[in-house]
């Protein structure tokens, strides 16, 4: 399967999910996530979901991170050059939806420190950790520009494809968490 086929198949599957399914599956993902060996770290980068695209709701995960006293970072995207920056999420963070429906911080300074774990949105993935996103390359570029090895955790409502053909610039996952299990790559 190529990335275009995978993207179409899984975006169509996500469209069929109703709000109850999204909430239930997202909670199951956050519960399964607690079994990962990732909790000794300090800085966790996590996306805020685009509800209109039926993405995994990350608020239960953010609550877990806050309860564990972890530092939560959220992205802000620059669509002119398809880059992304991290910002600390705290009680003073002001959030606003951008023109693409992505909730982002509009205050705070960019976080320039070491990110330990990143939760990555995805459309599809395969059994060896290849990830398919929306096709703009934001996360691939972001991961390539980090100075350290970040644990990469995908979140998906669905099981993996056997194999998806990816491009040379695509970055792989270390784990993917679904409502039913954890995949390790």
Q: Could you characterize what this model shows?
A:
With 185 residues, this protein is of the alpha/beta class. The chain has one domain (3-184): NagB/RpiA/CoA transferase-like (Rossmann fold), CATH 3.40.50. It has 4 helices and 11 strands; from the N terminus they run ααβαβββββββαβββ. It has helices at 3-15, 19-33, 59-67, 138-144, and strands at 43-46, 71-78, 83-88, 95-97, 103-105, 117-120, 124-125, 131-132, 151-155, 175-177, 182-184. The strands form 3 sheets. It has a 7-stranded mixed beta sheet with strand order 3-2-1-6-9-10-11. A hairpin with a 4-residue loop joins strand 10 (175-177) and strand 11 (182-184). The chain is globular and about 40 Å long. The two termini are 19 Å apart.
